[in-house]
């Protein structure tokens, strides 16, 4: 039965979004879709069976109820690593192949999700290149834009996978980089025999996070306007500059959390009056009563954290780039982005699917 491996150049590139988007699209077209994530790095136990948290979530979205131990036969726990590094693990790809065969039986197409990058798991021979060759299935690689795209990596992957690689998806591409992708990068990749199956534009909603979740991830606590913890943060701005300069930047950045020292009441007040989704006060300093009162009146939550502004900004950058795709609105948006920007007909043809 046809199988499609979805891998990526790095972790947090959008594999779950692509897998769910393709799965839902295939199902909408009437195909019986199977799913597998051979290697999992987020151990979770379900009814006494070890599985992967992301894999369980994707199954749920696709309406599947498969044995978690078959879906993810290799779950990376600390005990697993100890055995693998001491050479006491072998035959893992055979186990993956056996489970793939069982899961793909009677399916029109089975989506196989990667974990980490294409080389993750090399230490125990469960990396994507090894698994793809063992299963003999087609592969799509996602490359997420981070300052630039990893065209060298993609060229190396074509050499490593040959005809198994049917194309790449360029994800989270900002508007200012679209011309370069269309005029330079896509033609270059095509000259190397690499099809660009889709270019997914950057969508602020996909990187957004609710204030309540943000507070938890930052290790802080909400100290006001608790009832508005579901407000959405799409980006952030650091309020270390003079108020006049801050106001200029602030007007250009909608839905931005403002990271500012707990003692900078001038910047805090401007941010509150400008309707930011939340304030993140650093240095474990409580705001004054005027700020607290305005926060409650304007229903703008304040998160208080212990760390300094620089450390919080670094953490925030990581959170916004890696926040999980778990909200229903994000799943729908992600599915729409995939359906509207990936060459689905080409995939059907390459996988030999006909309905």
Automatic annotation (TrEMBL):
InterPro entries: DRTGG (IPR010766), P-loop_NTPase (IPR027417), Phos_Acetyltrans/Butyryltrans (IPR050500), Ser_kin/Pase_Hpr-like_N_sf (IPR028979). It comes from the Bacteria. It holds the Pfam family AAA_26. CDD domains: DTBS. Residues 213-317 form the DRTGG domain. Homohexamer. This is Phosphotransacetylase family protein. It comes from Pseudodesulfovibrio senegalensis.
